[in-house]
Amino acid sequence: MASSQLPVHALSSASDKYPKPQGVAFTYGTAGFRTKGDTLESTLFRIGLLAVLRSKKLNGQTIGVMITASHNPAIDNGAKLVDPRGEMLDASWEQHATLLANAETTSELLKVLTGLIPELKIDWTKPSRVVFGRDTRPSGEALVKALKAGLEAMGCHAPLDMGITTTPCLHYMVKGSNLKQEAQIKYGVPSEQGYVQKLATAFTKLMKGKSPASPLIVDCANGVGAVALAKLSPLISDILPIRSICTNTSDASALNHSCGADYVKTNQKPPPAVQEVMEKGHRACSLDGDADRVVYYYLNPDDGKFRLLDGDKIATLAAGFIGDLVKQAGLSDTLKIGVVQTAYANGSSTQYLQHNGLPVRCVPTGVKHLHHAAERYNIGVYFEANGHGTVLFSEETIDILNAHEPRSPAQETATQHLLCLVDLINQAVGDAISDFLMVEVILAHKRWGPVEWDQGYEDLPNRLVKVNVTDRFAFKTQDAERRLVEPKGLAERVDAIVNKFEKGRSFVRPSGTEDCVRVYAEASTRVGADELAAQVATLVSDFSNGDLF
Ligand code: G16
What we know:
4 domains; 5-stranded mixed β-sheet; globular; binds 1,6-di-O-phosphono-alpha-D-glucopyranose; Alpha-D-Glucose-1,6-Bisphosphate, Chain A, domain 3; alpha/beta; about 550 residues; single chain
C-alpha cells in the first residue's frame, strides 16, 4: 500500500507541465470526459495516472484508454477508460476520475492520488499495463502526449499505442490482451489486423452459399470508420461490395459534419452526400466519428420517402433471427434471450418485442448501463435507438453451444451459425462495422431487403431535440431517465403537455456528452410528435432562462 513509493518528484514535475485550466469543471459523463479538445491535456495526463492505478488494482491486467469525442463536432475531444474484459470503466471508479481531473494544482493532485492508493487498497508493487488509441481529431496528438506523460510519470512501462483506431477495435484489443493463451487462440489475435481478420472470417463463413449482396452504401462520417473499412472491405468485397462515402479524414472540419449516424437520427433524413447516390429501395447506413454506432435507412420504393432503420430496428432484427436459430438448434429451453433498451426506444419496438415473447428491460442512456444489463441473459441483445449496441453471448452460453450434440443436420447448422455470430459480433462493445456485417448476414439469410426488414412494426413518429441551457446539471431524472425529479414541478408540466397528444410520450434529460438537455417526444402523428417536442423544448428553455417558477 506504500503510497510513499509513489514517484512524487517525477509526478510533480510532469504535472506542472499540464496545469488544469482554471474555471473548468470536468465530469466523467455518459462516455467519459468530453469537452473542447484544447482544454483536455491536464485531464489526459491524469487519466494516465488513473489507468495505472486501475491496472495495478486489477493485478496488472491491461486497461484501455480511448481518446475520442465520437459523434461530437471536430473541435471537441474526450477520453474514456476501458476495463479488462473490454467493458466500460467500473462505475464506482468514475468519481476517482472526476476527482483527479478537477484537482486545481499539482499539490492537490498529489494529495488526491496519495489518498486513493490506501483507499482503493492498491498494491504499488504490482505491474501496470495500458493500451491506448485515438480517433482522427487534430487535438488527439497533443492529448496522446499528455496521456503518455502521465503513464510515464507513474512508471508504466511500454504502454501500447494503437495509433488512430476505432473505439470498438480498442475495446477488442483490451479484452484480447487479458485472455490466457488458449482462450486468446479462440478469440483472435489482439491487434487491429487480428480483429479485421476475425470479422472477415466469421462473415465469410456465415455468408457461405448466399448470393452476393447488392452494394451497401456506408457513410463513414469522415471519421476513423473510413480507415477501418478500407482495411476490411477488400477481404469481403466479393460477398458484400461496399461503397464508402464521407471518407475524408484529412479535413478535420468534415468530421460528423452533415453526415454520420447522429445527423441521420436527429434530422431523420440521409446526409446530403448519401442522398446524391441513393436509389429507391436500396439500403445505406451511417457510422459515427469513432465507428461505434450505426443506423440504416432507405428510400421507400413507392413514394421515395426516407425510412429509418435505427438501433431499435436492428435490435428486433437481431433478436428475432437469433431466437429462430436457438429454436432450430433445439436449445430454446436452455438459452434465454433478453433485450435491453433505453427510454429513447420507440414505443412500437418495445411493444413488438414483448408481443414476440421477449423480455425487455429499460435502463439509463449509456452503453455502460446497457452492457451490464445484457450480461444477465444467456444472449443479451442491447441497442440504443441511436445505433449503439451489440449482442452478448455469456461464457456459459458459448460452452453450451460448443458442447451441444445436435440431433439433425438442421440443428448442427443452426448451432454453427450461432457460434460464428459470437465471432462476428463484438463481445466487448458495440461496433458499427461488426453490427452492419451482422445485419447483412441476417438480411442475406432471410432474403430480405430493407423494405421487408422494415415491415415488422411501424415506428411511432418521434422527434429528438437539443435545448441549450445555462446549467444542464440542474436537470435530474429517475426511473431510467423517464421522469424529471429536478427542477421541482417541471415533470408535472411536461405531463400536462404530453396528455394533450394521442399516444404522447416525452422525457427530458441532460446529455452526458454535450452541453445541452435532450428532449424526446413521440406521438401518433408526425405533426403531433413535432409539436409535442417543440412545446416541451420551449418549457425547458423557459425554465433555463428563468422565465418559469
Ligand atoms: C455516447 C454513449 C452512448 C450515448 C451517447 C449519447 O455515444 O456511448 O451510449 O447514447 O453518448 O449520450 P448523451 O445523450 O448522454 O449525450 P458516443 O457515440 O457519443 O460515444
